Amino acid sequence: MSNAERISTPGKADDAEITLGILNAVHQNERITQRSVAQELGIALGLANAYLKRCAKKGLIKVSQAPANRYAYYLTPQGFAEKSRLTAEYLSDSFRFFRSARSQCTEALHVASQRGWTRIALYGTGELAEVASLCEASGARIVAIVDPDYRPASFAQFPVVGSIAEAGEIDALLLTTLADPQTAYDRLIETYPAQRILVPSLLRISEAAS
Question: Global pTM?
Answer without folding.
Answer: 0.62
